[in-house]
Each structure stands twice: as structure tokens, then as C-alpha cells.
Amino acid sequence: MRNSSQFPKDTRRTVRRRAVEAAIWGMPLVSVDAMRTAYFRDAGAQYNDILYFGKPADWRFQFTTPNASTHYVYFNFNLKDGPVVLEIPPTVGAGLFGSLDDAWEVPVTDVGAAGQDKGNGGKYLLLPPAYNAKIPAGYFPFQFQTNNGYGLLRAIPITSSNEDQVKAIDLVKKIKLYPLAQEPDPPKQNYIDASGKLIDGVVRFDDSFYASLSRMVNEEPVQTRDLVAMGQLRSLGIEKGKPFNPDDATKAILKQAAQEAHEQFMLAVRGGEPWFPGTHWTLIENKGAKTGFSFMDDSTLYLEERAVIYFVAFALPKQLGAATFYVVAANDSHGQPLTGEKTYRLHVPSNPPAKQYWATTAYDLDTACLIRDMPNPGLDSYNQKMQRNPDGSVDIYYGPTPPAGQEANWVPTASGKPWFTLFRFYGPDKPLFDKSWTMTDLEPVSL
What we know:
Elements: H1 9-41, E1 50-52, E2 61-62, E3 71-78, E4 84-88, E5 94-102, E6 107-112, E7 122-127, E8 140-143, E9 148-157, H2 162-172, E10 176-179, E11 191-193, E12 199-200, H3 208-219, H4 227-233, H5 248-269, H6 303-312, E13 324-329, E14 343-348, E15 354-364, E16 369-370, E17 378-380, E18 394-399, E19 410-412, E20 419-428, H7 430-433, E21 443-445
Parallel strand pairs: 1-11, 2-12, 7-8, 18-19
Antiparallel strand pairs: 1-3, 3-9, 4-7, 4-10, 5-6, 5-9, 13-20, 14-18, 14-21, 15-16, 15-17, 15-20
């Protein structure tokens, strides 16, 4: 790449604008690479290993917006050398659902109760791009448009009892992932318990963002929709089949651009379309679910909406609302950003429309991850220590310290840090969608 210090001023400005646009376009790829790197580096895993949480995830699971109530199952696979088989067991003794996503984070299929197997179990055959060989019988076949892909599943205990927790993990250890070529004699499945380990999949918004983007561009086939973007990436020194070696002046421009994109993403989280009328509970964006999270229709590729959702989340279901649904709050009842030094109260009315359970979790707005070093990232309806009101409703408090007598209903936040919360409905029910059940905003309170 030409030394950017030799660029005319206007050209340097153009490079920065191109870099901001590249960050928006490439956000899903870079997020996948950050998570995959953590899978390899921090968990000591290899492709096709099953990473799971024997205990619900805590703050050490530094991926975007995990639920602190769930036994997650996460794995990476690569289809460059041929199809891969995923065996899903019948959901007996616990719930199991999730999605399989490509390197652009497009959900290719849901699995488990809301997926092709309908909770009865089965073999999913994950096919590489342009695969045209005969597909053997006995599989649910799905073709990917990328070489890399990942899965995120959730094992849901029936209750919070130790016995049901064990049943959920037993179900996890029946999942298998291996190359189709090894189908006659599959290798022994490797399961890695990530509980208590720091798994750092945070995207860094500096010049390393573009090194990650270059790596993924070189690993994946170019799709027709992205030809214009690939041409623009050349001005940043990112080109398929070529090394990415920016000089120091160019790195400085790239760092500024990544930071600018980061600021745009955080502002977008504070915006969004209201879900409950008259509140600041939002959906962040309104294109993903309508397009199966491909963010593409006959006329448009919705780049900004795609970028912000994959800044905030990963492993979105192909059919949102079938197994889970969530709303976001980053502002209080006055429309002011949520900040870690203040205390807020959320009133959850009785009979939340969640046939399995509901959960609220606090996240760091800078990273969209669980707030570091917080002992209790959230609360859920499984929690038997949480105090209920006589009518079954619940008052939840968020802040740096708990109000007197409300320790069991407290979600800690970090002073000086902006944050947001997701409220999740597992097994969402009709009153959530027809708005006959609603929540009010988070109210600032004085201790």
C-alpha cells in the first residue's frame, strides 16, 4: 500500500471515510474472527470441539450479550475440506435450541425444538459453498456460502434444581461434530467446559480491526453482493491473496476510523424502534428478522442495520420469536443514557409472556459484553431468592450498590461506564407480540 503520509490531505480523508465504511461492512466478519480467536487461544479448542458452560456463563464469557442464566454451547467449524456432520440429540430431560451461522453471521438454520429436527434430534449436514456432489440420505442438508461457520446452542434445564442442571449437561455431551469423511468411524468428541475461564472475544476498535478483516476476506469466497466493497478495500491495502502491511501513518488513520465506527454503533444502540409503545424498550433495528438476518432483500443490503446488530449480538435465530425474543433498553424513562453510577428500578409486571423463563442482563455499552468483574450480571425467573410482590410482579434494581433490603433483586453496574440491558423472553407468548403485556421504562431512583 502507498505510504499514507505521502497522500494529499483530501486523499487521507478519503481513506478514513473508506475505512469507516469498511468497518460497517465488515463488522460481522470481524466479530466472528474475534470469537474464533478466543475459542482457539483462550479455550484451547480446535475446529469441531464442543465448548460448553457447565455452569451458567459469568462475566468471563466476553462475547457479545450472552445470557448469564444459560448453559451455552459454542463451536466453530470449517468447510474448506468438505462437509461436516452435526449430530443433535432428542431434547429429553432438558431444552436445547440454537442456530448455525456462516462467517457473515447469517443464520443458516435453527436446530433443536425450533429447528429442522423439531426437538426429535437428527443429523445436520453442513455443506461448503458450491458443493454439488450427491447428498447422502438421512441428513438435514444445509449449504453455506462461507467456509467458516459457528454454532451457538442453549441447554435449558427444566428447573433450577441440581438434578435438572445435570440433565442439561448430559444432553450437551450427546452433541457431536465431525467431518462427513469420517462418518464411518467418527473421532472421539472433545468437550471443553469453559466455566470460570476468561474467553475474550471482544472486538478491538483500533487498527487491528482491519488486520482481522483482511484475514477473513482472504479465507472466504467473495459474494457478488460484495464486489463493490472489495474494490473499495483496495484503498486500505486489503486485497484477496495479498498480505496486509499498512505503515504507521496508515495505521493511525485506520485506528481513527475504527473508533468513529465504534461511536456510531454505540449511538445506534441508544436509538432503535420502540417495542412497547411510549417506552425506550427497542428492537435496535427492524430489518434483520424480516430478512432471516441476511439483511438483504430484492433492492438493498442493509449495511448499517447489520453492523449494529452484530456489534450488539451474535448467533441470532433464523426465526426470531419462535424460541426466544428480546428487547433492549439503553435509556431511562427520561430518555437519558443509562450510566453505571446511578440507580434504576424496573417493574416487571406479573405473568410475563415467557413459557420457559425470562431474564434481564446488564452489559457494558463499550463492548456489548457482560460488565467485567461483576459478580451477578443479571436476574431471571428461575431465581428463587429474588423477592416477588404479592401480585407476582418483580421490582429489579440496577446500580453500583443495592438499595437497603433489595440485595436479592439487584443487578450491579460499574460507576463511570455506560451500559444497557436486554430483557429476554424464552418461549415467548402471544401477549408479548400483541402488546397486551407491556413493561415501563427503567426509572432513576435516589437511595
